[in-house]
Write a structure and sequence with these properties.
Shape: globular
Number of strands: 13
Helix content: 25-40%
Strand order of the largest sheet: 6-7-1-13
Strand content: 25-35%
């Protein structure tokens, strides 16, 4: 099994490492629902990041499934408002997308895998006060051994890994963040409370820094007996 991870650096006006993209291109390529959502965003920077992430996803899907042009993909909103492929598509894939200041990313895998991706920019002040309310005790203890900028980076690494798992489950923040504990390492791993009714051994976690951001991936196999999937990064 392979998970393809696409990451692009962005800046305003919207220029991605894979080529130029503008809001005009978004209007030509994105569907009506995506455009409507983009236009509800109050700030231009948020609209640009939204457009970049959704354009990236469409390009990624077309690269992996060449029979369909980028503008031809159609999506519907699944549980917890998560985008999924329209039922009319014969392609069976699982995907997740994310954007933060300076970076957009998406992960695409076979539909038999659960996949979640999250990114956070190190240029933003870390909301460390959330650790006391949202992190498990072991995570708070790990943060406490770091100081200054190292603590902020450690916070974002834990946060993005948690978010990636929740996104892979398709539940967003419907699950309490302290019911899952990230254990730092190479690779990191996760411990899950019994209330989540899930086997932590079937999950693979990965972190990579890109520009001034950290990108986290969580991939769930059907059973822990299956080998962990291979991550292919674009660009490598």
């Amino acid at each position: 099994m392979v998970v393809h991870v696409f990451v692009e650096a962005i800046r305003a006006p919207l220029v991605c490492t894979a080529g130029a993209a503008t809001l005009d291109e978004a209007v030509r390529v994105l569907d009506d629902g995506e455009i409507a959502r983009m236009r509800t965003l109050a700030f231009e920077a948020d609209r640009l990041r939204y457009a970049a992430a959704h354009l990236l996803l469409r390009r990624a899907l077309t690269q992996l499934q060449p029979g369909r042009e980028a503008h031809a993909w159609r999506f519907v909103r699944g549980p917890y408002d998560r985008p999924v492929l329209h039922p009319s598509h014969p392609e069976r894939v699982s995907f997740s997308l994310t954007h933060t200041a300076g970076v957009v990313a998406c992960a695409v895998a076979d539909a038999t895998l659960e996949v979640g991706i999250d990114a956070e920019s190190f240029t933003r002040a870390a909301p460390l006060e959330l650790a006391a309310a949202k992190f498990a005790a072991a995570e708070r203890e790990w943060l406490a051994v770091h100081d200054g900028e190292a603590r902020a980076r450690a916070f974002y690494e834990l946060w993005t890994l948690k978010e990636a798992y929740l996104k892979a489950r398709g539940l967003g923040l419907a699950l309490p963040l302290d019911s899952l504990t990230v254990v730092p390492g190479d690779p990191p791993r996760i411990e899950l409370a019994a209330e989540l009714h899930d086997d932590a051994a079937r999950w693979s976690l990965s972190l990579r820094r890109h520009a001034d951001a950290v990108v986290a991936i969580a991939v769930g196999r059907r059973t822990a007996a299956q080998p962990p999937p291979r991550l292919v990064w674009h660009p490598g």
